[in-house]
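**Fold in tokens:**
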Amino acid sequence: MVDVNARLVWSRTKLHRKRMIMFAIGTLAAVVIVLLADSPRERWGFGIAGFVFFCFCFYDIYKMMEPNSALIELLPQGIIYRVTTEDFIVPWNEIKGVDTIDIHTAFGGRAETYPGVTVILVSKLFYDRVVHVDTLIMRGPGWGAWFVPRDANTMHIALHHHTIPASADTIKREVEERWKVFGKT
């Protein structure tokens, strides 16, 4: 049974752990290339790249240990998202439905598919007013995996079980139960 009044917090740990592994591999690869490089120019270039990857590793360790590192929170007032440059809340009465979809997006020049992702449906008007960020730089990579157009008037906002420590079924059940109680007001 779901306690709809309870504050439910899904942390960033899973997301940062994945990124940290990627950055650690990048650091290791850069160090190996620096050791095997023939020219000083290559050593400097890959040395700088290795240092950058190393810094990103420590940044992710810091973010994982941060006490308030929630990525998504479910409250009686709505869903708080911390996936963009600014936190935002989606009130339950703005949600038009809860669904599960497969998300297809391009990331780093290659196609990515995220199967069975729980999404909430909001109006395009709400999305444009509260969520949308105009510049590509401020959106950052992966925007299309979190915010997916459904049609001209509706947007999907994803709750990825790939990045938060909960299964797709758990996420959908928790969100759907709260929406049934709080969403109709």
